[in-house]
């Protein structure tokens, strides 16, 4: 069904579903105070560090670093995309998912016709393969047996201009799907097949629907491989060949291999190596990484060991840096000269493949080896150059643990103390970056005494949203010039207007991505729950108000030294002074 899912429906859905009911059938949970606890479903831990909070309607996995609401859990555990997760959650309580329509909705192109055309093309290609001895002989020569070909839906596009065209009475959907090409600018002049005399590989989305094709020529076509063009269904920077098949074979893959082509994926599966995927004629993108990490915690890039392979690996590394986090690992595997993954196993056996996998370089080593290659580490200047070159890459890492590990790896390379390296790196970072990092570190610390008042107030609100109803005169609080006050006031305003909102609902509804991430961190279970949350919250609000009044008094007194105050300013100063005196200073 076309159309955008209304935000109001998503918020209502989250308020009607109990996250414990969603997770309990999938993860064994036991009551632990106000929360439920169990083993992480996303990592192989032995000590439970997975918490589910009924009050916040959120889950927190300290082993893998994941957290979120019921929708996010279904996306991570069942490997669904956002729409699929919403639909699954709605089905669980027996409601239909509405779609917006009208002028405000983003126009969407119907994909039902193109999807049907692609499925029809798939049947045609598979039938054509059974009738082509030439295509069958090619696959046999490449070591692809019938069972493997059937599993991956491998087919054959006959060496004709109209073999597929004749399958469609209406060529419109097939044109939209990229299966046919119009003769000239007007489709009325006729169409012809895009794929001719090629082994075909259906490209499936995460639901298993065929959304595009890849084709390997059996002739002397200069284009050895050909992909469908980008369409409303297919974006090569967002899809991976073989991911659907990998997820069908492995429920929770320990690792996924990113290889270069269709035959690498199919060949590895033929030899019993599951979990290989391939990009579709493009370099690795951030979308590819996010897609991979929805299915596994470890991604191993497999490239040729030549210069081109090293360049491709470096591009993948640059895309991977911002996606790293707890429970996520990236490695780089370089094949011996003259081998691709398929030929390595076929000619030298599974032991050779396993040896190559074991020798895969962690991202940190590949990064520093590549940077150090241009530095003379026998000299102070060369060691300083390595730190300077590493600085921008470290700055792109959002995960503090990974950044710390790489700084630790710089110690033996530069023969400098860790503190000296950190000082050098800070010299290359802006004060805003430094303060942001400090704020994140402070937010992740659950100890109330070390938190700033604004952060602690937000933490208390996320733990107990009804505290917002205790706040009066929000406009006065909004005038307080304090870091984070804009977010605090916005959260208070939302909770006052929507008194039944849970922490999960609040975070889901938050538009600003960076602020949403801050709220997710602050929503984590507190190491020591507050004994008197109302009194602590009231005290923080009172102190923030007093700070705001004090700053305003100082501003007015400074103005009085420079000019005569207006009647309104004089009255305001008198009222503020009286209010501060009533508070005791």
In this structure, how is the largest beta sheet organized?
A: 5 strands, antiparallel
Full CATH superfamily name of the largest domain = DNAb Helicase, Chain A
The helix tally amounts to 26
Low-confidence runs of at least 5 consecutive residues: 103-110, 428-450
The CATH topology name of the largest domain reads DNAb Helicase, Chain A
Alpha carbon gyration radius = 29 Å
What is the number of domains?
4
- What general form does the structure show? globular
The residue-averaged pLDDT reads 83
Amino-to-carboxy terminus distance: 62 Å
Class inferred from helices and paired strands: alpha+beta
CATH class of the largest domain: Mainly Alpha
Number of strands: 16
Which percent bin holds the helix content? 40-55%
Provide the spatial order of strands within the biggest beta sheet.
Answer: 1-2-3-4-5
Approximate strand percentage:
5-15%
- In the CATH classification, which architecture of the largest domain applies? Orthogonal Bundle
Structural write-up:
The chain is of the alpha+beta class and 585 residues long. It folds into four domains: 7-92, DNA Primase, Chain A; 109-234, DNA primase DNAg catalytic core, N-terminal domain (Alpha-Beta Complex); 367-432, Pheromone ER-1, CATH 1.20.50; 446-583, DNAb Helicase, Chain A (Orthogonal Bundle). Helices cover 49% and strands 12% of the residues.
What key phrases describe this protein's structure?
DNA primase DNAg catalytic core, N-terminal domain, 26 helices, 585 residues, DNA Primase, Chain A, Pheromone ER-1, 16 strands, 5-stranded mixed sheet, 5-stranded antiparallel sheet, single chain
